[in-house]
Amino acid sequence: MIYNAQRVLNVLALFSFVRATNAVIVVGVLRSGGDTLFSFFLDGVVIWVVGVPMAFLGAFVLGLPVYGVYFMIMSEETLKFVLGCGATSPDAGSMIWRRRSEWLWLSNPARAAQRSRGWRVRESAPASSPVKGSDSSASTRLLAK
Amino acid sequence: MALVFTFGIAHATAIMVGNRIGAGEKEQAYQYAGRSLGFTMLTGMFIGSQIWLWSRISSGFSKFRQR
């Protein structure tokens, strides 16, 4: 019993930084950046497609002990970590998907929702034009006026 | 429960990145996201090392064998 608890704590300690980074990627970056579809994919699809079959495989087919099953659940977290890092950074995405991924999460979710409902959208200057350094920031625009 | 601190970092990151995107400064939002990811990785490694260390200490450094 205590042997199993010790092993489970070891697995948790090994994968704690992966889980921490997943929390920041999904909750912090992708949701606030407006990439809700990929956030849904990471949180909903990967768990049911990868996590549950891996836990089933480890528990009932391979017959692993409890820390082995926990390790297989953590493999799903690792997949989320790799995909989430690729979605967050275009450079990391080019390493994973062999192409420079778009900055999908850097969008304004309120404007995107308005646009998808066909409302007339008031485009602000820095949102429509490509960002070039800090000269298009809001403070300098106010100063220019 | 040990990862509650990183969930706090995650919500703080959501607020900061959302603020910068709403202001239209995407470069700075990207910078904030990268910094917060690095900080969270370091914090997670620290928390993991502490979990490992205190599980050993609380069990009195004894080797448990499987019966």
> What is the terminal-to-terminal distance of chain B?
29 Å
Total of DSSP H or I helical runs spanning 4+ residues of chain A: 8
Low-confidence stretches of chain A: 95-101, 125-145
Percent in strands of chain A: under 5%
* Backbone structural class of chain B: mainly alpha
Cα shape of chain B = rod-shaped
N- and C-termini, Cα separation of chain A: 70 Å
Rg of chain B from C-alpha positions?
Answer: 18 Å
| Shape estimate of chain A | elongated
Oligomer: heterodimer
How many distinct folded domains of chain B?
1
Largest sheet of chain B at a glance?
none
SSE string of chain B, helices as H and strands as E: HH
Helix fraction of chain A, binned, reads over 70%
Question: How many whole angstroms does the radius of gyration of chain A measure?
Answer: 21 Å
The average pLDDT score of chain B comes to: 84
Computed structural class of chain A: mainly alpha
User: Number of DSSP strands of chain B?
Assistant: 0
Spell the H/E element sequence of chain A.
HHHHHHHH
Let me know the largest β-sheet of chain A.
none
Biggest chain-to-chain interface with counts: A-B, 44 and 42 residues
Tell me what you see in this structure.
The complex is a heterodimer of chains A (145) and B (67). Chain A has 145 residues and is an all-alpha fold. Chain A has a domain at 2-97. Chain A is 74% helix and 0% strand. Chain A has helices at residues 2-14, 16-33, 36-61, 66-88, 90-97, 109-116, 125-128, 138-144. Chain B is mainly alpha-helical and 67 residues long. Chain B has one domain. Chain B is 79% helix and 0% strand. Chain B is built from two helices and no strands. The radius of gyration of chain B is 18 Å and the shape is rod-shaped. The model of chain B has no long low-confidence stretch (mean pLDDT 84). Classes of the chains: A mainly alpha (145), B mainly alpha (67). The interface between A and B is large, with 44 and 42 residues.
